[in-house]
Write a structure and sequence with these properties.
Elements (H helix, E strand, L loop, with lengths): L1 H13 L3 H10 L13 H8 L1 H19 L14 H20 L12 H11 L1 H18 L2 H19 L5 H17 L1 H9 L9 H15 L1
Helix pairs in contact: 1-4, 1-5, 3-4, 4-5, 4-6, 5-6, 6-7, 7-8, 8-9
Length: about 220
């Protein structure tokens, strides 16, 4: 019964619509009516800029981290011998938070894609894997400025790390890793199409780098 209540609480935490509340409070708009129509960090970067996008991303990560860490309120899962059970519960708590982010009860069940919250969940379960995924995400973001592509490749890297590099043995965790990669790819179908067509929006970061490249190209053309 305690586990069920914790999963419900995790869902409610995940349901906090960070992007929507920020867009309404500071800009008097509904972020879901602009850009891609999602209430997530990527669309906030696109519509409100890097400052607010970063804030939304950090808070959404913390939602997943906090929700997944709720297992500490059940003493049994703190015992060394309960490792598999603990991971299973953490996966359940994290998934509840991600579902809450995608279908938030506080925002008419219209949320974001859950990638940042999902990362918070991974950070709680296995920090080293999370750091590796962040590395992939930041590298792709630096090279392309596509948050969507960065998210996709980071999710694929997560599956590869769990299944082959770290070779995790918990069956639910392995299944979860494969499901994450598939889910992120499926929820980014429109983004993939826009990337292939060449009209996917880039986040407004690394402007200095881009201006420098443009100046070099301009001087070269001259």
């Amino acid at each position: 019964m305690t586990e069920v209540l914790l999963i419900l609480l995790a869902y409610l935490i995940g349901s906090i619509p960070t992007a929507l509340w920020i867009s309404r409070y500071f800009f008097d708009i509904d972020i879901r009516e602009y850009g891609s129509g999602n209430a997530g960090a990527t669309n906030t970067f696109r519509v409100l800029g890097s400052k607010w996008g970063t804030i939304v991303m950090v808070v959404d990560v913390l939602k997943g981290l906090l929700a997944t860490s709720l297992y500490i309120f059940v003493p049994y899962y703190l015992h060394l011998g309960a490792e598999w059970d603990r991971i299973n519960l953490m996966v359940g708590l994290g998934l509840a938070a991600v579902v809450g982010h995608i279908f938030p009860i506080w925002a008419d069940f219209r949320g974001g894609k859950g990638v940042a919250t999902l990362f918070g969940m991974i950070l709680a379960i296995q920090p080293l894997v999370a750091v590796c995924c962040v590395g992939v995400f930041l590298l792709v973001l630096y090279l392309t400025r596509f948050v969507s592509l960065s998210s996709i490749l980071a999710s694929v890297a997560f599956a590869v790390l769990i299944l082959f590099i770290f070779n995790e043995q918990v069956p639910l965790y392995r299944a979860f890793a494969m499901a994450v990669a598939l889910l992120v790819i499926l929820t980014h179908q429109k983004n993939i199409s826009r990337i292939l067509r060449g009209n996917e929006s880039k986040v407004p970061i690394l402007k200095y780098r881009d201006k420098k490249r443009h100046r070099k190209q301009y001087n070269h053309d001259k």
